[in-house]
What we know:
Helix content: 40-55%
Largest sheet: none
Radius of gyration: 18 Å
Structural class: mainly alpha
Distance between the termini: 52 Å
Order of helices and strands: HHHHHH
Number of helices: 6
Amino acid sequence: xxxxxxxxxxxxxxxxxxxxxxxxxxxxxxxxxxxxxxxxxxxxxxxxxxxxxxxxxxxxxxxxxxxxxxxxxxxxxxxxxxxxxxxxxxxxxxxxxxxxxxxxxxxxxxxxxxxxxxxxxx
Length: 122
C-alpha cells in the first residue's frame, strides 16, 4: 500500500503529484459543461435549461454557482447541474458565465426583490 499523502502530495514537497480520482472527475465534468455550453448543441441547450431551472428554484438574483452549496443546495432539485455545483463549491472552484449567458429571472418593478434574498436577510 502506497501512502496517499505521498502519492497525491505536491512534487515540490516530495510527493508524486498524482491528482486524486475526484479531482480528475471534477476537471472532466467542468470541461464537459463548458464545451457543451459554448457550442450550444442539444446537450448544451439541456444544460442551459437545467441551469435556468436551478436558478429559478433558488429564488435569488445571484448566479447559484457563486453561492455556497452547503447553505443553498437543499433548495434545488437533484440534477447533474446541481451535482456539479456541489462539487465546484466543495473544491472552491469559481465558475463564472460570460456576460448574458447565465439566466436569472428579471425583477418586474422597482420595488420587487428576489424572494430568497429577502428571506435570508432576516
